[in-house]
Amino acid sequence: MSRPQAVPTVQVSNHRVIVTEWRFAPGAETGWHRHGHDYVVVPQTDGLLLLLESRDGERRAPLVAGQSYYRDAGVEHNVVNDTDHEVVFIETEIR
Question: CATH no. for residue 33?
Answer without folding.
Answer: 2.60.120.10
